[in-house]
Design brief:
- This protein has about 130 residues and is mostly helical.
- The chain has 2 domains: about 70 residues, no CATH class; about 60 residues, no CATH class.
- The protein is about 50% helix and about 10% strand.
- It contains 5 helices and 2 strands, in the order H-H-H-H-E-E-H.
- It has a two-stranded antiparallel ribbon.
- Strand 1 and strand 2 form a beta hairpin.
- The protein is elongated and about 60 Å long.
Length: about 130
């Protein structure tokens, strides 16, 4: 029983590491793509690159979705804001405070909730 449990545990650890490696590969590809606003319409990571990070018996399907219009700055990740305002952290902090609020949940945990958007629906329709 102990041997069986250990084998299952090691398999779970291996799968977890493979998933982390695959996620890192996808994120790295997106962050290093500087030729467009966001991911291309047909975003692909070749099977050879995936096999570099995954064991031969692990099958994975990766799907990255564009979460809205390519011209919608409301969908920009916070990391882009941080990069843009890296010389003015006060501006970033004000924008973040205006855009989000923290809501306390049970057990002293807080959840970040979107409060305001950079562009309104009317602004987006004009764009």
């Amino acid at each position: 029983l102990k041997k069986n449990l250990r084998a299952k545990f090691e398999r779970e650890v291996s799968l977890k590491q493979s998933a982390e490696n695959l996620t890192e590969l996808a994120i790295s590809h997106i962050l290093n793509k500087t030729t467009a606003y966001d991911a291309p319409e047909h975003f692909r990571i070749t099977p050879n690159r995936i096999n570099t990070f995954l064991s031969a018996d692990y099958q994975a399907t990766v799907e990255i979705r564009d979460e809205g219009s390519r011209f919608n700055p409301n969908n920009l990740p916070i990391s882009y804001w941080q990069e843009y305002f890296h010389n003015s952290p006060q501006s970033y902090e004000r924008l973040y405070a205006w855009s989000f609020r923290q809501e306390n949940q049970a057990g002293n945990l807080s959840t970040t909730i979107r409060n305001n958007y950079l562009l309104t629906l009317e602004d987006l329709q004009e764009v």
